[in-house]
Amino acid sequence: MFIDEAKIFIKAGDGGDGCVSFRREKFLPKGGPDGGNGGEGGDVIFQASENVDTLTDFAGKHHWRAEDGMQGEGSNKTGADGSELLIEVPVGTLIFDSDTDILLKDLNISGNKVTICKGGKGGKGNKFFTSSIRQAPRIAEPGEEGQARNLRLELKLIADVGMVGLPNAGKSTLVSVCSKARPKIANYPFTTLNPVLGIAELSDYRRFVMADIPGLISGAHKGAGLGHEFLRHIERTKTIVHLIDICPLDGSDPAENYRQIREELEKYSPMLAEKKELVVVNKIDLLQSNEPIRELSSKLSGCEIVQVSAATKKGINELKERLWKHIQQEGKTD
What we know:
alpha/beta
């Protein structure tokens, strides 16, 4: 199950209470106060990890709590600190305070850590309150409460290339021939139900990551279809592959199909629509002549177009080299 959103409650550990104690030893009937301080509560820490792919761990567990500090003891013994709670999340996870909708941290680099809730401090024991005028205090502090937050976790996959297009344009097939990813492929719409990542390899040990999301349809920015739920996963990409079926089964105009998807991207996120784009014309093996390509090129003048056949792998190497150049020009992903 692919889960890319979750709402949870987290609570840092409470500090341990201070101790009221007096030294009692043979020949020392008035040994004085020796109550120790309470231990500190454990922090709640989030860490980006490549060992986690989705937010599935949060689907059935909504409350996460660190360990409380232990109470202080006599003989000036400080209570043990509570253990911190380390929560691993996928690289690319955004952590929001769900009460204020404020972004607390974007864990977009593997190994990054952030302390979201601090544990409470331990209370002082009665030894701390000893003074020249108060030599036998019978008071101690309670431990402080640990911080607590309601969080919303949102996953945005980290990829170099994001693929968009209508259902059945051939995105899954293209990802499978460009990489070792094995998404579900069939000759009906919406075979891709979840985002798919694939690593495309080139010569000289070059590689980049491709992300395929479910196909978009008209009204996707308002929630129609499946792809709108996953558009966030291509917001981090350096470049977009806009895949066009040059021979759509419904007889629709490929150029109009392109404009339809562009309109959805612009309505969903102007920043996403401004990303560098490569138009990839798929299924050229079905053409009887080059006339449909010439017609499409004239309608999409100004667009960078590459012709491929994912089924026969024609043009795939050229496509990967072109994408590599795009990635290098755009630099590192945010």
